[in-house]
Design goal:
Number of helices: 10
Radius of gyration: 19 Å
Distance between the termini: 46 Å
Order of helices and strands: HEEEHHEHEHEHHHEHEH
Shape: globular
């Protein structure tokens, strides 16, 4: 009996030595003048070497928070170990859509994620601090954010993704408080045209970005994702696009992120991580 208990204790101790660790940190935002929480998942051997790691930024959806991704996919800790990468889950506010709001100067989540969080992570963790070893993706509102920030900051992120993303906000003018961030469709109609992902392809170069996105065929964002895929085909923009049976829900996102992280790992390895 004693031997059995001792064996279990040793197994648990050994497992804890080689398991990923999850930090919850408060990052001060000079642009919004407040501390904002963020989750950082480090791989199992982080404390045992001087190795530097690539980083994937995971953006949550509308009404979510920095903790949402771990609630949806607790196995992210296993993926950090398996793929030898750091996973970062910033907080994008309840409904920011990851914009620097043109109508509310107190809401600057584009600046926060693309500059303040990235700078904090590079300063406090052993990262490979260049665009070729940074990825950004997200779900729903965060899928919009992954593409929006990726397109606008190709000097920061070399690869971008989206799962079930709101990649065209124009059909959803009355949904999810988007108008609170960019204005109404009458007085601020140019914002609705210029601040949606599908139209940004006409303005922002994509030739240096590695792109992946997916959507479930029963998702209310399915049609806009399919339209984005078709536009990319017409513009001859290289990308990986996946559609599979699924809805706008946790089981779909838990499944989807596994494939996207493999895509990002392959990208990092091609760039020498």
């Amino acid at each position: 009996m004693v031997k059995t208990i001792l064996s279990i204790f040793l197994l648990l101790a050994t497992t804890s030595l080689f398991a990923s660790t999850v930090d919850t940190v408060a990052i001060y935002s000079p642009s919004m003048q407040k501390n904002i929480k963020c989750v950082v998942i480090k791989p199992d051997n982080y404390s045992d070497s001087d190795k530097k790691y690539p980083v994937v930024y995971l953006l949550h959806g509308h009404s979510g928070s920095y903790s949402s991704w771990l609630e949806i996919a607790p196995n992210l800790k296993d993926y950090a170990d398996e793929h030898q990468m750091i996973l970062v889950c910033p907080d994008g506010g309840y409904n920011s859509w990851y914009y620097d709001s043109p109508i509310d100067p107190k809401r600057k989540y584009e600046t926060h994620v693309s500059k303040e969080v990235v700078a904090y992570v590079d300063d406090h963790y052993r990262t490979i601090a260049d665009r070729n070893h940074r990825a950004i993706t997200g779900l729903s509102m965060g899928g919009h954010g992954g593409f929006y920030l990726g397109l606008r900051h190709p000097d920061v992120f070399g690869t971008m993704g989206s799962t079930s993303g709101g990649v065209d906000i124009t059909p959803f003018k009355k949904n999810w408080e988007i108008s609170e961030q960019i204005g109404d469709t009458i007085n601020y109609k140019d914002n609705w045209k210029n601040m949606t992902v599908i139209n940004m392809l006409d303005v922002y170069p994509t030739d240096s970005l590695s792109i992946i996105f997916d959507c479930g065929t029963d998702d209310f964002f399915y049609e806009v994702n399919k339209a984005l895929h078709n536009k990319m085909l017409e513009m001859k923009i290289p990308h990986d696009y996946i559609e599979r049976p699924g809805e706008h829900n946790w089981p779909y996102w838990k499944n989807s992120i596994e494939y996207q992280l493999v895509f990002f790992k392959n990208y990092f390895e091609k760039n020498g991580s």
